[in-house]
Specification:
- The structure holds 2 protein chains of 2 kinds.
- By secondary structure, chain A is α/β, with parallel strands linked by helices.
- Chain A has a 6-stranded mixed beta sheet, with helices on both faces.
- In chain A, helix 1 runs parallel beside helix 2 and helix 3 packs across helix 4.
- In chain A, 42% of the residues are buried.
- Chain B folds into 3 domains: 102 residues, Phosphorylase Kinase, domain 1; 151 residues, Transferase(Phosphotransferase), domain 1; 56 residues.
- Chain B has a 6-stranded antiparallel beta sheet, sandwiched between helices. In chain B, strands 7-10 form a two-stranded antiparallel sheet.
- In chain B, helix 4 runs antiparallel to helix 5 and helix 4 runs antiparallel to helix 9.
- The radius of gyration of chain B is 23 Å and the shape is globular.
- The chains are: A alpha/beta, B alpha+beta.
- Chains A and B meet through helix 3, helix 4 and helix 5 of A and helix 2 and strand 5 of B.
Chain lengths: 243, 323
């Protein structure tokens, strides 16, 4: 059957990048390669700058994904929702392109009468449930994130429960940035289940740098390159999305 | 972008008129009934009388919900959720918003009903709910986001109904929407796969929520924490066996849990009756000091007996209705 694989990066951060390439540009690059970038801004109180929120929004926008700023306490549920919504959105985008090809220019799901829309949506739901998912989680472990990492851990375990309840299979990997000597550190390589994350975030960097852009760039490289045709990441799709 | 849209469909003033793009049916907003993640629900006047209209932000989410409501109408016999009346788009200067109209259910929230009528209704309402769930499961669906907010108690005859069926999921898929307190995944007691036992866990948590209206957060003890909370409240202790089974996923279907709830209700009646029956005979063997109490409690015994008789009669009546 080969329904293909959805590729997503989930970035968890609490503020602005301040080193290296512009993360918004890198996110656009990811999108061109069929990888969706979602961003969750994690705040304790209202201590996040206007600029930080703006960057979070724009990374997701150019990465074709979804962004949300949340309080640490609501993290678990948000991580789950954002991931699911982004999957639906990506599939929706692909289905829309197919519809345009069948029905002609400017015909999207919204232009169909409600009765037909329901049938299309069933296909979208079905795909969201059965497609495979490669999810790379990229966690900002700069000093200001220190007291939030406990909740991040919990949220990721929770996400694993949700995604593993799907019919399609999943692969997760976990990276943190900034790394010790490099831009990113690998905490977990591709695995079907996130089970025990206890102590995984022990190496915290205390420096003030947040190299979001370079970290994203390395994350893109971590996706397995497959030559076989897949729904989301084949060449055809890339050409279309370039238009 | 979404923030502008959100303000547009929230807080529509009463008197706002909307006409569907496709079916041209007119609606006039009376008041807002509530709002959630996917949109706002309004009470509205329509050519068919009062209806509830849900206006959404996102066509995908609304379409999914409509799909569910449509499937509900195919479930034979009993009406489970509110019935679907119309699906359309509302075109405004700000953009196009998908909406649907459904039956308007008028009633009381679960909490206010039980506060008013007493805790003996908990068991009866749960029996009704479990009967509905059983029918839903047999039709191939799982409710998902089962919680007091999504339930309503309508009158004459008293019946628990579902208000919002947006989270309903096909059996075997993964749960679309959930609320942490009622989600077994949150408590570390199971997956989020849509299966009957997922809903039955939520039913148990609804009963717990009735006794702990402010809810509580998990510590790391899992089932032990919930057990301890159950034992702290007499109303819950009465159902302890059922609750513990449901929380640990031991019921394969709603029918089994329903049976156990019923036997809990009747057992509790028997135990009251039994203890009062025994008391006098024992007291006769013993001496005076108890005698005073006996006379006092006589009136209470009678009320208890009468009350439990009425309750039993009602359960039997319900059975006749739901079977």
């Amino acid at each position: 059957m080969g329904k293909g694989t959805l590729k997503q990066i989930l970035l968890l951060t609490d503020g602005c990048s301040n080193q290296g390439e512009d993360p918004i540009a890198i996110a656009a690059l990811a999108k061109e390669q069929g990888i969706t970038v979602n961003v969750i801004g994690v705040v304790d109180d209202d201590r996040i700058s206007e600029q930080g929120i703006e960057e979070i929004k724009n990374i997701a926008l150019s990465g074709g994904g979804i962004s949300q700023v949340v309080y640490t306490k609501q993290l678990a549920k948000t991580v789950q929702m954002v991931t699911r919504q982004a999957m639906t959105q990506t599939i929706h985008g692909v289905v829309n392109r197919e519809l345009t090809q069948i029905l002609g220019q400017d015909q999207e799901i919204e232009d169909l009468p409600p009765e037909k829309r329901g049938q299309v949506m069933e296909v979208v739901d079905e795909l969201g449930e059965t497609m495979d998912l490669d999810l790379l989680i990229l966690v900002d472990t700069s000093a200001s994130m220190k007291n939030k990492l406990g909740m991040v851990q919990e949220a990721l375990t929770d996400l694993s429960i949700s995604l593993n309840s799907r019919i399609g299979s999943n692969k997760f990997s976990l990276y943190s940035f900034p790394g010790k000597r490099k831009n990113v550190d690998k905490l977990l390589s591709w695995t079907p289940k996130i089970e025990s994350l206890t102590g995984v975030f022990h190496k915290l960097s205390s420096g003030g740098i947040t190299p979001t852009g370079p970290a994203l760039q390395e994350a893109i490289e971590m996706f397995p390159r497959k030559s076989r045709r897949s729904l989301i990441s084949d060449d055809e799709y890339q050409e279309e999305s370039g238009m | 972008m979404t923030s502008i849209k959100k303000s547009q469909v929230c807080n529509l003033p009463s008197g706002t008129k909307l006409i569907g793009k496709w079916h041209k049916r007119p609606y006039k907003i009376v008041k807002e009934l509530g709002n959630g993640a996917t949109g706002s629900v309004y009470l509205a006047e329509s050519p068919l009388g009062l209806v509830a209209v849900k206006i959404g932000l996102n066509s995908m989410a609304i379409t999914s919900e409509v799909n569910v409501l449509k499937h509900f109408s195919k479930v034979q016999g009993q009406i489970l959720g509110p019935s679907l009346i119309d699906v359309d788009d509302w075109v405004t200067n700000e953009g196009t918003f998908p909406f649907y109209a459904m039956e308007y259910l008028k009633g009381q929230s679960l909490f206010s009903f039980i506060n008013g009528k007493g805790s003996e209704w908990i068991g009866i309402l749960m029996v009704q709910l479990l009967g509905d769930l059983d029918r839903l499961h047999q039709a191939g669906w799982v409710f998902g986001d089962l919680k007091p907010d999504n339930l309503i108690v309508v009158g004459h005859p008293t019946r628990i109904r579902w208000l919002d069926v947006g989270g309903t999921t096909l059996l075997g898929r993964s749960i679309k929407e959930y609320t942490e307190f009622f989600d077994r995944g949150y408590w570390g007691l199971g997956t989020r796969k849509a299966e009957p036992s997922y809903d039955l866990f939520s039913v148990a948590m609804i009963m717990i929520n009735i006794c702990y209206p402010n809810r509580f957060e998990k510590n790391q003890e899992g089932i032990k924490q919930l057990k301890e909370r159950i034992q702290r409240k007499p109303v819950l202790r009465q159902y302890e066996v059922v609750l513990m089974n449901a929380l640990q996923g031991k019921y394969g279907n709603a029918q089994l849990m329903k049976k156990d709830v019923i036997s809990c209700i009747s057992k509790s009646k028997h135990s009251i009756v039994d203890s009062h029956k025994k008391q006098p005979t024992k007291n006769n063997e013993k001496q005076k000091p108890v005698k005073v109490r006996k006379e006092k409690s006589k009136g209470i015994i009678e009320t208890f007996l009468f009350g439990s008789f009425l309750l039993l009669a009602y359960i039997l009546y319900l059975f006749g209705q739901t079977m």
